[in-house]
Each structure stands twice: as C-alpha cells, then as structure tokens.
Amino acid sequence: FSVCNRKGKTPRRPPPKKPSNNQKDPVGVYCRARPLGEEDEECCIEVISNTTIQLHAPDGLKANRNGEFKETQYSFKKVFGIKTTQMELFEDVAKPLVEDLIHCKNGLLFTYGVTGSGKTYTMTGSPGQGGLLPRSLDMIFNSISPYQAKRYVFKPDDKNGMEVQNQVDALLDRQKRESQTSVPKTPTTRRFDPEFADMISPEEACKASGVDEDSSYSVFVSYIEIYNNYIYDLLEETPFDPIKPKPPQSKILREDQNHNMYVAGCTEVEVKSTEEAFEVFWRGQKKRRIANTQLNRESSRSHSVFIIKLAQAPLDADGDNVLQDKSQVNVSQLCLVDLAGSERTSRTRAEGSRLREAGNINQSLMTLRTCIEVLRENQMCGTNKMVPYRDSKVTHLFKNYFDGEGKVRMVVCVNPKADDYEETLLVMRFAEMTQEVEVARPVDRPICGFAAGRRQRNQAFKEELTRRLEDRGGPVDGDSPTVLNQLLQSFPPLPPCEISGPNDNVTLPRLIEALEKRHKVRQMMVEEYNKTGKIITLFRTQDSNLLSKENFIQEQRGRLGEKDKMIQNQKNEIDRLEKKSKMLEYKIDILQKTTNIYEEDKRSLQQELESREQRLQREMSEKRRMESRMQGIVTDAKLKWEKECERRVNAKQLEMQNKLWVKDEKLKQLKAIVTEGKTENQQPKRPSREKDKVPGEVFKTRGGGQAVQFTDIETLKQENPLAASRKRRSSETGPDGEPMEGNWTDVETRCSVALEMRAGSNLGPGYQHHGYPKRRKP
Ligand code: ADP
Ligand code: MG
Fold it and tell me: Of which family is this protein a member (predicted)?
C-alpha cells in the first residue's frame, strides 16, 4: 500500500521489508484554529506563538471545578491562527508531500478534530478557497502535465500493481472503453456549476521542482469512505435501479505481494488534468451525500480517504514511448484523509443503531489512538508490543505508513468556542503525543532509464527537421493529401449516356458537361500531382542529403571507433598504473604500519625507562631522608643522654656532698668528743674538705633507697687513745651482744664494707641502705 514498489524485481513473498535507511522523522503535527462562529462568544484558545497554542477553561467550567483547570499549552510543528489562508497552509503542510510523491515517495495526510472544527474545510475547502486536496491535485498536474503518458498506457492490475502497455494496445483499450461508457473527456476549460467553481486562483498555481522529464507519468485517483468500519468505493459505477436501489457493497482490505494494504477491487480512475480529477472527486462526494441521506447516516461519523497514485516510468531510448518494462514502473501514492469527528458519542445524542454505528466509528478513532500510543511506547521504551492495526479498517489501511516508510502529517483542527473545550483538550493531548511517533524516512529511488534529456533532444530534433523542410520547399503541411482526396471525391460520375431517341437533347449536353468537369478536375489533379512530385523530389533530395549525411556520420563513427580504441588503450595503461600505484600504496602502508609498531615500542620502552628512573630517584631521596632522620634521632638521643648523665652526675655530686657534709659533721662531733676527753693529747687536724673529694656514684636501689658506689678508697688512720671512750661506747653492741667497735669504728672498715656490697650486685629487696652500711654478718 505504501511502498513505492518496482514490480517484477520483488520476489513473490519477500520477508517483511525493512526500510533500507534507518533515518526516522516524527509524525508532523500541525494545528489550525478556525475563526469563532457568529453566535459563539466565548473563546477558549489563544495562539501564543507559531508553534504554541494555549487552552483555557471557560468560566463556567472553572467555577464548577473550583478553578482546578488552568491554562494548558500545547506545542506543534506549526500552529496556524485564524488568519491563515488555504494557500499558506498548503505551502507548509501538503506541498512537501506532493514533491515527495513526484519523487516516488509516499505520503499520508490526515485531518483530525471535533465536528465543526474545520477538517473538511482544511482538506477540501470551498469554492475560491480550495483546500489541501484540490491544491495537491493542481500542483501535481502543473508539474507533470507535459510529460503525461497517453491514457491506458499505464494500467492498474487488480493486485495493487501497475502494468505498462504499448500505445497501440492503449489506443484499442481506449476505443473499447469509450464505446462502452461515456468516459469524461478532458475538459478544456475550467467550467462547471458553482459547486465545481474554481478552487484555486491561477496566480496561486505552483509546481514541483526537479521533475524527471525523461519519465512518463500518469495519475490515478480512488475515493473511499469508511463508515461503521465498512469500506465503500465512492467511484464505483453501479447501474442505478430507481425501483429497488441496491445498498452499496462494502469492500475488503488485501495485502499485496509487497505486504502493502489496499482496497480490493477499488475503482482507480486515470485522470489527465486538475479539472478531470476534481470532477471525479465531486462525483464521489455526490455519491457519498446521496448514500448518507438515503441511509440516514451522519456524515461527520465517516472517514473519507482520497488516494492519489502517481505511476511513472522511464522513456525508451528514442524518448518517444514509455519503456515497456514493468519492473521499471514506479508507483507512489498520497493518501488524503478527512477523519470522522473525534468527539465522544454522548455529544451527538445518537440512539439505537446510529449509536452502535457511532460507537464503531469512535472505535476506529480509539484504535487509531491506541496504535499511536503503542507505537510511541515501543519506540520510546524499546518494547515490542503488538500494534493493533487490524482492530479497525482505518488503522489497517494506514499500517504500512507507520511500519514501513513514508511521510505522515496530521492537521489538528480546533474550534475556539468554549463549548468544545473538553473535547478540544482531548484532541490536543492526542495530537501532542502523536508527534512523538517516528516513521522511517522514505529512501530516494531515482528512476534508472537511459541517459537523461531524451525527451528534449527528441523534441529539438523534430523541430529542427520541420524548420529545414520549410526552408527548402515551402510548408510541407498535411494539406496535399486532403486536397487530392477532395478532388477525388468531387470527381463527377458519368451520367447515363444511352441516347433515348433523335429528339434527345438532354443526354449529350449532360455528358459533355460532365466530361468537361472531369477534364477540369483531371487538370487540377495533374497540377496537384506535379506539386506532389515536387515534394517527392524534394524528399529525394533530402534523402540523398540524408544519405551523404549518413555517410559522413559513418565516417565519423569509424573515427570515433579509432578514438575509442585509443581511449581504451590509454584506459588500460591507466589501469595498469593504477594497479601499480595501489601496490606501492599497499607497500607504503605496510611499511608505515611497521614503523608505527616500532615507534610504539620505542615510546613504550622510553616510558618504562623514565618511570624506572623516577622510581630510582624517589628511592634515593627516600634513603637520604631516612639517613638524615636517623642522624637527627641519634644526635637527639646522644644529647639527651649527655644531658641526662650530666644532670644525674650533678645530682649525685650534690647528694654526695650533702652526705659527706653530714659525715663530716659527725666526724667533727666525734672529734670534738675525742678532743674533749684528751685535751692535752692533741689530734692532728685533718682538713674536712678532704672528705668531699671522695668520689662515688649514687644508684637507686630496688627498695626505693639509694646506694653509693665508691670509686676510690682513702684510709683514715687513727689510734685509739682512750679506753674511757671505749667504755662509754660499750653500749653500742650488736644484737648478739658482741661489741661493734672492732668492726665499725674506723672509716676504712666501713668503706670497704660498702664497696663489697656494691660489688655483689645481687642486692636483695631486704637490703636497706640509709647512708650507713648495715652490719656485716659474721
Ligand atoms: P468539520 O469537517 O471538522 O466538521 P467543517 O470543515 O465542515 O468542519 O467546518 C465547519 C464550518 O466552519 C464550515 O462552515 C466551514 O466553512 C467553517 N470553517 C472551518 N474552518 C474555517 C476557517 N479556517 N476559516 C473559515 N471558515 C471555516
Ligand atoms: Mg467534515
């Protein structure tokens, strides 16, 4: 249905076709607001910009819903305000689709909206205000008119395909059809009754660019209506029976060999001009109107689909006829759809069967919405849900546009009146969502005929020939044969020449007259003949001219052949050199690659080297730092210990000094006692200072006391002068009753005891030292 197919090249049952390009375009959604009606006062829309429209709830509704509805804005590809003309709309919306059609691409354009929103006005228009449909037709014919094929050269088969037949067959076909029915002749002027009045003013006519002039074209139109999910052919010619009018027969949808949907047995009328196409369209319209009245249908509940098919095929090598090759025929189509009103059933107060029908029609719009929703979801979320195209005829017919490729556009029509607010809201939501669906962009399919420009060259050649003939022998028009014919016809028959009697004076004069006439005619004929002879001679001269020209051409051809050979040789040489250069390039390539590999290696090795050097550096500096830290620690410790030692020595010195002082004092006291007892016996004085000089070290003992280690021994000798003193001191005995004098009275003994105790390092916990060594055990 939708794909521009080349019959014959496609296998019978090809796999579901995938568009060969993966470029996609969103469905183009345009919005058009119609002006308010005269009786409608409140307006519920506002065009904000050329892409945005704003909807605001009417006052009544606001009050009802506690103002919960506020303004809502909707954006579209373009928004057309009430002042937009039909032409402006066409330029933006449909013109690109017509361009596409002419370039073998398919398009689908539909209008959507509430009843009365301007769908039909937009699609069809009114006299003087032609809508998208008549304008599209006009543009098509403006573009391809000079290149149209003769009628019946293209011939639709019954399977949605297109055949091509030669001109003779086409002519025979044409004669046959004309004798059967009264096929409308192409009107020569724009005429018709007011209904068919000019839809488009001539200054608005437009044309597609880049039309392939070396193709031949034919336009076919079909017009169908879908009502209550049944398809009716609006162009079907049925003999009208006034007594028992037959209800229209519905049609079915079929899939062609390319998996495109089409209406089986649908009439396809070949049209050769805009006017003829209009006429066919109006015929369909009329039929639709009659059926609707007869069957009491509501026309706003039917969908109408106008299909424009464009067949094109390349010309043959002479540029005269269509190439007789079915596989070269291209068919593209543009589908123009005026959908049923989108409002819900309740609004129309339909009842009974009408309600059921309305339900069905609603159903098809519902299906359309569902299909769009599923498509959108599949595309946006990457899901693969089944799109329910088959649920309604409309969507089933459009299936290929969404599944295959083509351009899809929708014009959403809105009526600004407040009454429509709620329905318009739904329309807007659907329309905005539709824009999120993407359709595969049709690929370019150039027609592959012969070298371009045949039609023009052919035409130019014919003109040139005529001109030359005129120059040489006056106008060679088609008159001569006609004159001769006329003369032959006016050749008077001989009257009866039997003389009835001697008194017959009628027959002879009549005969004479006739013979004279004949003679005259003969003379004229001779003249004509001579003239023709001249022409023949002229032709002969032309012939010999042509002959010599031909010889010349032959000669030139020979030369051309030689040149061709030369060119061929040079081409071979070029080929050889190219091969060689390719080989060298290949080698260079390999060398380049090798170099790259080596360079890569070099780089990586250098990198490694650098990183190793860096590591080394780091380790060295780390080592240096450790060294200096250790040195610092050592010096610190040394200093600390030196200080500590000094402090301790000083403390010891002080302590020892104190002890010595105490001892000194005691000794002094002792001395005093001694001198007291023996005044005359003077003792030599010993300087007390000497005792200070006794060097020693003080240690802390485990018990918490202190011990002195003497490092030097000085012996103080003294004779015992008095026994009295001994007596006095006899009270100083040990626990065993042994007197202590012998052991403790002299300093030497005491010191040696202290020394001994120090040397035995194992000082028990019970060992007490209070400045005086304990008594040694026996
Ligand atoms: P629909 O097909 O949506 O039911 P119609 O196209 O029949 O609506 O429009 C209803 C009426 O509004 C018609 O009389 C039509 O002429 C008028 N109308 C619609 N759109 C416009 C417009 N853009 N400018 C002027 N009149 C319009
Ligand atoms: Mg309508």
Answer: Belongs to the TRAFAC class myosin-kinesin ATPase superfamily. Kinesin family.
